[in-house]
Design a protein that fits this description.
Strand content: 15-25%
Structural class: alpha+beta
Strand order of the largest sheet: 1-2-25-24-23-22
Number of strands: 33
Mean pLDDT: 82
Number of helices: 33
Largest sheet: 6 strands, antiparallel
Helix content: 25-40%
Length: 1020
Amino acid sequence: MRWLLGFAVALCLVFSLDERLPENHLYAQGSNGIAVDNGFKISQVATDKIASNIFCMAVDPDGRVFVSGPGYIKVLVDSDGDGIFEKSTLFSGRLRSGAQGMAFDGTEILCTGDGGVWKFSDVDRDGVADALPEKILAIKTGGEHDAHAIRKGADGWWYLLAGNGTPILPEYNSLSSAPVKNPRAGFLMRISPDWTKKEVFAHGFRNAYDFDFANDGSVFVYDSDGERDISLPWYRPTRVFRMYAGDDAGWVSAGWKRPDYFFDMPTVVGSLGRGSPTGVKVAKPGGSTNGTSSGINADAIFVADWTFGRVLVSRMSQTGSSRMNFQDFAVAKGQTGFAVTDLDFDSAGDLLISVGGRGTEGGVYRVTPLERAAPIFTKDAEDRPIPSTPREVWLSQWLNSEVSDEDPEVLLRSLIGWNESDLRNKYDSQQIQRLSDYLNERVLEMNASNAALWMRVFLNWSEETIPFVEAWPDPVKLVCRVSRQNSDYQNRLELLADILNSVPQDRESLFLVRLGQLVFDGCGGAKSKLMFAGYTPSFPIELSRTQGVAIADKISSLLEGSRELESFNKTEYRRELGRLAALAGVGSPSLFAQIGLELEKPKLSLEERIHWLICLAAISNAGDSSTNAERSVVAGALAAIAGQVRSEQLSTDRNFEPRLRSLFQRLKQAWGESFEIQLANELSGEGEQLFFASEFSDQTKAVLVPKILDYIRANPNRVRFEHLDLLGRDGSFESLEVIRRFSNRQDLRPAVISNLMGSPDLADRELFVAGLASSDVLTIKNSAIGLRRTPHPVGIVAVLAASNALQRMSWDKSTVSARDQLVMFLEKETGQKFGYEFKKSGDVQVDMLERVSKWIETEHPLEFQTNQQQRKSDTRGFAERLAAVDWSQGNATRGASLYNSFQCARCHDAGSRLGPRLEGLGKRFSRDDLFRAIIYPNQQVPERYRAVAIETVDGQYIQGAMVYESVDGITLHQTDGKTRRINRDQIESQTRSSKSLMPEGLLDQATDLDLADLYKFLSK
């Protein structure tokens, strides 16, 4: 939901647009630094004081602007008519979550939130709800992937959009003519005006927030990307879909989203990279005909991206079938946050933009054409009826010969979801015969572009009505057979063979290969693991070895033949042939040879490289049918991934390395221990490669140590956690001395501490004392262990540092282990017993803290007083600190150095798994919002950035970022850079911590100049 889109460190990675305007195309109007398209001006018309934390906005038929946030629905008031809202009045405070979708129906206002759709009334139109709201639909709300936008269509029915976290109850799809028979994932529900009839209009979304209607009754939906899967073969960017009844947007699971080019996908009109889609608004014809100097007029679609702080626009396609050219329309350029949450048009036709989200500044902006004669939109246009009538009405008119323009596509779309028996009960035999004759006549026109429509019709119609006739093209017959296939393995095997033997070497190739995949009911089987979801059949076919090899040889032949083809859709065609081989699951020597040739291409993209490796891993007999030379090629391809990521400056997220480890495990399972040695021999010692080593045996890890030592000598500035961890496991004198060289690298200090604490030297004392000043609980714990194990007393400086760490620390379960270690060190060092209760969380043991302080004050009074003064200076308030900063002195270069020294890079750089990168930060967060979120990271924490807390049966408390969870156990990524697996039988309890993965106190030691430098860097 929209309010979960906040929190400064919980950010999605962002890509640049596929097509971007030149930098000087945007006209900087001067409203807090927000830039807008040429020919327009932008101004802030409502501030956070009257409308805070907005995540939903709508304009009613009278032109009143409604906004909503947590606990409120308000009406904005412009008392003097100057276009600026001076105040807001409370319409209702009944929805605790606020509304995540709003729509109007005369004097009634429908809102999504608090577990349903609620109907408010305002009969006297005084801007105050008349009575308590009525709950007219129960549906899951409140989560980022739950129900959101609601709109009324021109057909008089309501449309409600929900994300993939919303359960699809049977009553949501109760009509027999529902265009989606088995809805999946996020969905768009269509509801009758009296709210008694419901059907799923379209489905297959991940986390779509908003939608709007096109002129022909189709729907534009802006859906999110698979944010953590960047640079993996199944990653899909944020996409704007044009959806018709029965369409499937292709999100199947976290590991499988269908690509745009599948014939059974809806039209993707815009592919916009990474981001967080929010508002969608269509300016329908009826407004300006001349447009503005930039060409934007009433025939356009606007979409909003919260992550990157931008609104994009595209002219509507004349045909509605081609990609649109989305460009920046309004973007953040200054220091004001521009976290866009919703879009609407006011009564004058100007575009209103609301901003907000947890931890961000709320408000409303208005975009106005410089030429008043060319409005963006006219309100009258929105009320005009959509030219096309609802599909059931059009079908009835067609069957009753009331329409003369026989459009086969409109007819097919009208038939989707209708069972033949239902139609025969409603219409006479003559009408059905006319329909049958027309379909059989038009089937000759079928091709890849409309195959999906035909398939949906064939699914529900008999051969009596749509016969198999010899005159039909072969692709049509194959489509018909696939749509009616049953669970008979032999029948499907014969069909697959016929499809493979029919594949032409032209543009229809990709269509037929996809049809072959549908023999397996496509990808994403229920039992498939994330890494292999897009390569696992939904309906596995039992193949004999002979049958499997025959299919593999045929696919190999098609791959070989495609090398000489012109590049029509060659890359996609070859990729899907590989996926088809993975679905069949059986290889042959010729197929492995062809895949080897793919992996040896000099200009192979990263996604293609990983794709072909997954295809190999998905083939069950890979170990039997491949040669040692081919395995060496595969090992080399795996080892080359890290270098390709670095050299091409590609982005990765927390899923990247765990997924590749799963890939290696599958290949090792097929090819045995020898493949592990082959991979180790291919590794060069680069830190980016070493995540594979976590799966190696101790014997193989030992092979890597000389490589790592040589690499560190040659590349001291590129040392990573993984290097130090492997040397720490080696434990030799030489390895430990190399680790000590990096004690002054603050970004590596947690890894140095964790690898030296087991056998520390007195010379490590300063390192451990510095670690006690960290804001990271795990680093504090490891430092305390290191000090406790250090030979000989370590002195008052360490005692003071341990006492300060105790004073700063919270007293919940997450810190029990660290506190225990601190007290154990203090008692050993001082020879005192402080009455501390070990393994206890909850109430602060104040008496114990006072006894520690009293001992220090008595035994070391001078050091005690100096320490007290320093602590007071470090605890200035948030507002006081920021007010004292001279921001003009900020330097981005110094800020980059601070970013690393504060260890931000551990969680937020491309190689991290704990947090996403921070591009686009200055686009949506104001300066105060940003620093508030850094200084107080636990105030507002989205679910995905909460630590997973594990309590083991032997009393250990472990927390980190979730990497992978299965029935056997859970894998966490901890803040010291290590990945830790806990077996299920060792887990006593597992919860989501209420805290962020980001530690508190990161800026406690920062100077005012440090803050200015850091902000300068983060803004860039």
